[in-house]
Design a protein that fits this description.
Strand content: 5-15%
Shape: globular
Helix content: 25-40%
Largest sheet: 3 strands, mixed
Strand order of the largest sheet: 2-4-5
Distance between the termini: 33 Å
Order of helices and strands: HHEEHEHEEH
Structural class: alpha+beta
Radius of gyration: 15 Å
Number of domains: 1
């Protein structure tokens, strides 16, 4: 079951795009992403708040309650760096990820990806039908959603 109605629509748009790539499904996915961001819908993620400009090495010694590291994952085949996972449902997370998850608004997660030096972007449902949003895509989507980038550290 999807985390929220927006997640369900986003997951459907991602799946439509992956399984039938055409202009209509591409447009549908882009519209759904912009609407999702405009509403600041909630997703699941594994990241812990870092200082603006920090790297994941800065928290290398820290652990979550379950013993996992409080950082994003490097996706299989992502030799180009770290991608922050965003899951639209517990089912998507359970396809391959056992770390504890946090619920967070998508704007915070996108801003976080832009503010953390060694992050390449955000991967939506990385163990299912994934969509990767690189830093340029994130900036474009935030502009299209008319949302200001305002990552701030929670002390």
């Amino acid at each position: 079951m999807a985390l929220n109605e927006g997640c369900a629509r986003l997951e459907e748009a991602v799946n439509s795009y992956i399984f039938n790539k055409n202009e209509d499904n591409d447009l549908k996915l882009r519209r759904e992403l912009v609407e999702f961001i405009s509403r600041n819908d909630t997703v699941y993620t594994s990241v812990k708040i870092l200082k603006k400009g920090a790297t994941f090495d800065d928290v290398a010694g820290e652990k979550n309650v379950d013993g996992s590291r409080p950082i994003s994952i490097s996706l299989v085949g992502a030799s180009d760096g770290v991608w922050i996972p965003a899951f639209t449902s517990a089912e998507q997370k359970n396809l391959g990820y056992e770390h504890e998850l946090l619920e967070t608004g998508i704007i915070w997660l996108l801003d976080y990806a832009l503010a953390t030096n060694d992050v390449r972007g955000v991967s939506i449902n990385p163990f299912g039908e994934q969509i990767n949003l690189d830093r340029n895509s994130i900036r474009s989507l935030l502009r299209a959603a008319n949302v200001e980038e305002d990552f701030s550290q929670a002390e």
